Amino acid sequence: MTGRIQSREYQKKYNNDVVETKVAYEVSISKLEYIENDNNRLDVCEEEA
Questions:
Q1: What is the C-alpha separation between 38 and 33, in angstroms, rounded?
Q2: Across the chain, how many H-helices and E-strands are there?
Q3: Nearest to 9 by CA among 19, 20, 23, 30
Q4: Which of 5, 10, 16, 33 has its CA at 20 to 30 Å from residue 39's CA atom?
């Protein structure tokens, strides 16, 4: 998987005139590849069992 993560600050204003600064995160995937024989994933699943 390849892509990028971005964040930005914004201000949320409530009905009682309180303003809160928050952060929004965005994940963009530009390439997603399916791997049929993923030995690492099998090892993790066996360890958790």
A1: 12
A2: 1, 2
A3: 23
A4: 5
Give the type of residue at 10: Y
The pTM assigned to this predicted structure is 0.48
13 Cβ partners below 8 Å, 6+ apart?
Answer: 19
DSSP state for residue 49 in the 8-state scheme: -
Give the Cα separation of 4 and 31 in Å (integer): 11
- In three-state secondary structure terms, 2 is strand
| Count of the separate structural domains present in the chain | 1
User: What are 28's strand-pairing partners?
Assistant: 4
Letter for the amino acid at 17?
Answer: D
Per-residue pLDDT reduced to its tens digit, 1-49 = 899 999 999 999 999 999 999 999 999 999 988 877 766 665 555 556 5
